[in-house]
């Protein structure tokens, strides 16, 4: 409303029609009207000087409540019809214009505190749309994620699959932002020429706490060499506000030929592409290198075996390389975990050893062996489980080990500055 008034004051439209004036005795209108549409007095039609004074004093207010204007002489109130309509006659009412501008500024001042645009940290606006950016002299990639309502589970926290998906997303965006993305799923241009793509062979993740709905997490990732024909990728997830560590993870990757579905060596051309981005740093210092079991064979009283059969991939579980996404294996592994563990414990760590890829026609079964451990220091009972995911025809797909802590137990939180 105020803006409309201001606009009309600056850009006056067609002049408003003059008010109706009664006709004279002969049915004719007066010979002259002043600029306000008031019939001019006969005695003032020849006095142009007095008309000018009238316009000059028209805006002077009445004083002392006397009902008389500052211009006492009534004959100055008339303007002869011979006065032409000039630019000055059509100027807007400045008092109305100033009132409109004041109204606009007062309204803006009330709304301004509601616009919380100031960043809580200087780098908050550097990743406005969540695309991520290269940091640390080009060796590290950083991206922020907001935990959505559809990413939380029954515990009102993000699931392990959600965090694992964040790891995968940052890995791909790292390759893309660095300008190394070919036409494959994370493949470099030289890899695409040779029908090669990356597959994960091992992964370990340690979860210190799970974020909640609305939390923002900050994910850092980087790569390094792993032997002659492998690559290592690490991640560090922290709470964006507090800096507390949420998850640390490391993984090992090898190359597979898209046509033969067999593992391949890293060509020199590919190594030349990726070596400039190698950064020798480990997210997890003490890695779990213990050997994982084949099939559950422990029949002791401290172990309990659980099996879930008939697991099949959906079309949505396949990635563009036409095999099951590695995060889906975690969901299948936990399918055979007893519900009592899921209700009373939370996953503290997981180690995965991927043996072979899974296609859309595969039928799998999940085995879980539960071991009970008693922590003598805290007196709390913790659990560790061994898992085997295999085809129902026999071959093993994935072997895993998980550690569980009672819900409500606080892990030893570490704070790592975002600059690292």
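Q: What amino acid sequence fits the structure above?
A:
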């Amino acid at each position: 409303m105020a803006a409309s008034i201001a606009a009309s004051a600056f850009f006056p439209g067609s002049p408003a029609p003059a008010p109706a004036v009664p006709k004279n005795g002969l049915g004719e209108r007066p010979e002259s009207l002043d600029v306000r549409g008031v019939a001019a007095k006969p005695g003032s039609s020849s006095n142009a000087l007095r008309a000018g004074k009238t316009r000059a004093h028209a805006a002077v207010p009445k004083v002392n409540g006397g009902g008389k204007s500052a211009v006492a002489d009534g004959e100055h109130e008339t303007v002869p019809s011979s006065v032409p309509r000039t630019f000055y006659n059509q100027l807007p009412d400045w008092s109305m214009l100033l009132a409109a501008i004041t109204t606009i500024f007062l309204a803006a001042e009330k709304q301004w505190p509601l616009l919380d645009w100031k960043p809580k940290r200087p780098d908050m606006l550097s990743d406005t749309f969540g695309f991520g950016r290269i940091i640390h002299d080009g060796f590290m990639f950083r991206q922020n994620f907001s935990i959505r309502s559809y990413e939380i589970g029954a515990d009102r926290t993000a699931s392990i699959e959600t965090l694992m998906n964040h790891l995968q997303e940052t890995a791909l965006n790292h390759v893309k932002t660095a300008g190394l993305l070919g036409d494959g799923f994370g493949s470099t241009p030289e890899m695409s020429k040779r029908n090669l793509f990356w597959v994960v062979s091992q992964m370990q993740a340690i979860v210190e706490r799970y974020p909640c709905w609305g939390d923002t997490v900050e994910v850092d990732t980087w790569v390094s060499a792993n032997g002659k024909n492998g690559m290592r990728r690490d991640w560090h997830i922290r709470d964006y506000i507090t800096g507390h560590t949420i998850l640390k993870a490391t993984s090992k990757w090898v190359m597979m030929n898209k046509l033969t579905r067999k593992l391949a060596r890293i060509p020199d051309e590919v190594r030349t592409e990726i070596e400039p981005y190698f950064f020798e740093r480990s997210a997890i210092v003490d890695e779990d290198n213990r050997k994982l079991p084949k099939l559950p064979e422990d029949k002791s009283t401290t172990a309990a075996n659980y099996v879930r059969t008939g697991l099949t991939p959906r079309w949505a579980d396949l990635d563009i390389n036409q095999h099951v996404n590695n995060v889906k294996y975690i969901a299948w592994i936990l399918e055979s975990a007893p519900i009592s563990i899921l209700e009373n414990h939370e996953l503290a760590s997981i180690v995965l050893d991927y043996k072979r890829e899974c296609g859309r026609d595969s039928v799998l079964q999940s085995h879980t062996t539960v071991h009970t451990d008693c922590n003598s220091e805290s007196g709390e009972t913790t659990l560790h489980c061994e898992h085997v995911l295999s085809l129902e025809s026999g071959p093993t797909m994935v072997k895993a080990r998980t550690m569980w802590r009672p819900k409500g137990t606080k892990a030893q939180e570490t704070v790592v500055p975002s600059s690292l």
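Q: And what stands out in the fold?
A: The chain has eight helices and twelve strands.
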